[in-house]
Amino acid sequence: MIKEIVKELEDKMKKTVVALQKDLGGLRAGRANPGLLEKITVEYYGVPSPLAQVATITVPEARLLVIQPWDKSLLKSIEKAIQKSDLGLTPNTDGTVIRLTIPALTQERRSELVKVARKKAEDGRVAVRHLRRDGNDMIKELEKDGEISEDQAKKAQEEVQKLTDKHIKEVEEVLLTKEAEIMEI
Fold first, then answer.
1. Which of 42, 43, 21, 25 is CA-nearest to residue 34?
2. 32: helix, coil or strand?
3. What is the per-residue burial (b if ≥16 Cβ within 10 Å, else e) of 16-31?
4. Which of 23, 101, 154, 184 has its CA 20 to 30 A from that of 61?
5. Alpha-carbon distance 10 to 160, whole Å?
6. Tell me, which fold does domain 34-101 have in CATH?
């Protein structure tokens, strides 16, 4: 019973860290990254489709993204979707591909992005702590119902705490990596 609770908590905590990595991947760090375009959807035959499913996105240079739609008729739709997004990038089209030049970030903008990254990391830490609380509540419930002893409950809670510490450390590592990427000139 305890092993299942711990296993389930570990899975959820891992998913929290992965979700944070994905979320931070969408933050613009002055370097071209296809992850910037993940949230952009394009109308394709009446169905909103993620950009990556209707085009090839490449990074030929450090500050350039090239989007090559599989269907040339999508060029205008992709261009409009990028302009409507909160990326603040201007697409350049030559009739076959769209080029997105990523401008260098100002020091002020870098500081703002670091604050956003820290906020998202704090949300990740809070989510991990909520999972710890939920796990400890389940363990206390088992102890209260007499399904496990007090010693087993204490050991299980220590295991949950170790898991929590491990995943909060992973959140910190993800944040430090992103901060370094943002502050890199």
1. 25
2. coil
3. bbeebbebbbebbbbe
4. 23
5. 9
6. Gyrase A; domain 2 (3.30.1360)
Give Cα 132 distance to the centre of its chain. 21
**Per-residue buried b or exposed e for 60-74, using 16+ beta carbons within 10 Å of the residue's own CB:** eeeeebbbebeeeeb
> Where do the structural domains in the chain lie, given as residue ranges?
2-26+106-183, 34-101
Contact criterion met (CB below 8 Å) for 97 and 104: no
Distance of alpha carbon 52 from alpha carbon 123, whole angstroms: 27
The Cα–Cα gap between 80 and 59 comes to 21
Question: What is the full per-residue pLDDT of the chain (185 aa) written as tens digits?
Answer: 888 988 999 999 999 999 998 888 777 666 777 877 878 888 888 888 888 888 888 888 888 889 998 888 888 888 888 888 777 778 888 888 899 888 777 888 788 888 889 999 999 999 999 999 999 999 999 889 888 898 999 999 999 999 999 999 999 999 999 888 888 76
Pick the CATH number of 2-26+106-183 from 1.10.132.20, 1.10.3430.10, 2.60.120.10, 3.10.290.10: 1.10.132.20
Pick the closest to residue 33 from 113, 121, 124 (CA basis).
113
If we measure between CA atoms, which residue out of 88, 116, 81 comes closest to residue 102? 88
